[in-house]
Amino acid sequence: MAVHSSALVAAGAQLARGVEIGPFSVVGPEVAIGESTVVGAHVVLAGRTTLGRNNRIFPFASIGDIPQDRKYTGAATRTVIGDANVTREFVPVNAGTSQDRGITTIGNGNLLLAYSHVAHDCVVGDGTTFSNNAQLAGHVVVGDHAVLGGFVGVHQFCRIGAHAMVAAGSIVLQDVPPYVTAAGYPAKPHGTNSEGLRRRGFPADDIAAIKRAYKTLYRSKLTLEAARERIAAEIEHVPALKLLAAFLDTPGRGIIR
Q1: Do 135 and 20 belong to one domain?
Q2: Tally of domains within the chain
């Protein structure tokens, strides 16, 4: 463990083996940091915050502080971050609120580029990429391996499905289903994230089936319920479609159309 002499680490903070704390960083009394996590200079880790192993946090990030929410009145809410995440400069991650789960959660292996923002009560899965200035409002759910381009803004309570990709500068006002590429203000569907799926090792047959499901959802002129049923009927042959069918079956703000 290596803590710079100018860092302020409160009594009660838990620092595991191999943790590094850089110059002028502040670690609060209810913060727990997992093994081999590296905290750069001028970082603030506050509130009831838990970080896993092998995270790297760059200068001026702020993790676990109180939500930017007028309804917040000091409830004992939390922030939980998994393993092997990279949080770049000036990224704020706010704690949850008692009006929701009371916890903001980020999984494993995520890349949060400079000035991106994760607001209160958000749930971020594994392996996501937030490009510079990608912004989540409160209560947003982002699925595994989703990609948010630069300057993307996501409305509160929206869901971004796993393996979805949202183009730079888009404003997301409704849910983006898994595997879908979205763009625009407001964001609209623009096909499937086929290249991303190929890079992640999806078989060609699955990618083709996902494209057919996209056409069923967006080009068949079926009702949403009828399209969902048709997609669900293909799950036995293409298990990857289970993710899409489950997303469509879960109430939200309505999918982008």
Answers
A1: yes
A2: 2
| Residue carrying structure tokens 């056409």 | 215
**What's the alpha-carbon Rg for the chain, to the nearest Å?**
19
H runs (alpha helix) in the chain: 194-199, 204-218, 224-233, 241-249
Active site residue 206: no
Instruction: Indicate if 120 belongs to the active site.
Output: yes
- Domain span at residue 226 reads 197-249
Task: Note the pLDDT tens digit of each residue in 50-66.
Answer: 999 999 999 999 999 99
121 among known catalytic residues = yes
Q: What is the pTM of this model?
A: 0.96
Q: Measured between alpha carbons, how far is 19 from 239 in angstroms, rounded to an integer?
A: 41
Choice among 127, 138, 143, 196 that is catalytic: 138
